[in-house]
Amino acid sequence: MEVFFDARKIKDDRPVVLTLGNFDGFHVGHQEIVRRTVCYGREKGFVSLLITLHPHPRQLFAGDLSMITPLEDKLELLSEASLDRVLVFPFTRTFASTSAESFIRDILIGQLNARHIVVGYDWNFGRNARGNPGMIEEIGSGLGVSSEVVPAVTIEGEIASSTAVRRAIGSGNLARAEQIMGRRYGIKGRQQQGEPDHDDGFFTFPVVFPDQVILPPPGAYLVHMGAQDPSATAVAVFPDKQVKERPGCLIVSPNPFSIADRRWIRLEFSHNSALLFHGQETEEDQRQNSIRQARALLSRHNVLK
């Protein structure tokens, strides 16, 4: 999969089937849109192209949106979706003022050579969010470009959406988040400098996360640290009070595996493993309770021998 950050650098006159959106969380609804895009490209011999906006419009205008999948994580997920190309389109205030008609006609069709456009049922774009699937069909049909609208995907009666994923993670319902995303909820953090502490048979070290990534509520969670062997299983303890600029957690592990060379660590959460904190605890209280919580979780899930 080729990744571009500037549409002008795509030098190719082959016909394109494209889809576009934010794709935050890359849930099962997004996956269906991409599946249809890729299948159409293979059937017609078109190049499959996905356009994702960065940053998310709400981050630019309101700054109040916590992301499920930061750009790097999103690109990793898309690389496994059999797409030919991804264009990371810079979302700026100037671009936001572009009319939807101009975006369709001049950029999607004129510049990117789209011959078939696949969009989700609720996608809006362009100045004042006037663009919609109906506009794509209307403008495209006059220029020989077809389009397809992918209907909502529902999971147990709820429409799969990024909002639904954020709601599930924010409430600690990681099983629901996993259902909607079709995979375990995971986040990537940076290991703090220094070697892990050793206390009462456990190794502990802090991990910090980007400040615009959604985190689960305070509690202890069983996590898998990017490997399949049991030594990569640990507990992530999230405190009651997060430092806005440096949100993080404490990793508690029964195994002395080396992390000295791993600056970035990916945590994948076991959906049925949460011990949520109820009531306000001081940071010191939570640190003292972290090993106790970890021992309970690891014992429950047969990690401790």
Task: Give me a quick take on this structure.
The protein has 305 residues and is α/β, with parallel strands linked by helices.
Your description of this structure?
The chain has 305 residues and is α/β, with parallel strands linked by helices. Helices cover 30% and strands 27% of the residues. The chain has 2 domains: 2-159, HUPs (Rossmann fold), CATH 3.40.50.620; 184-300, Elongation Factor Tu (Ef-tu), domain 3, CATH 2.40.30. The strands form 3 sheets. Strands 1-4-3-2-5-6 form a 6-stranded parallel sheet, sandwiched between helices. A 6-stranded antiparallel barrel has the order 9-11-14-13-12-15. Strand 12 and strand 13 form a beta hairpin. Helix 5 crosses helix 6 and helix 7 (162-170) packs antiparallel against helix 8. The radius of gyration is 22 Å and the shape is elongated.
**Secondary structure: number of strands:** 16
Just give the CATH class of the largest domain. Answer: Alpha Beta
Main beta sheet strand tally, sense and closure: 6 strands, parallel
How much of the polypeptide forms β-strand, as a percent range? Answer: 25-35%
Keywords:
single chain, about 300 residues, alpha/beta, Elongation Factor Tu (Ef-tu), domain 3, 6-stranded parallel beta sheet, 6-stranded antiparallel beta barrel
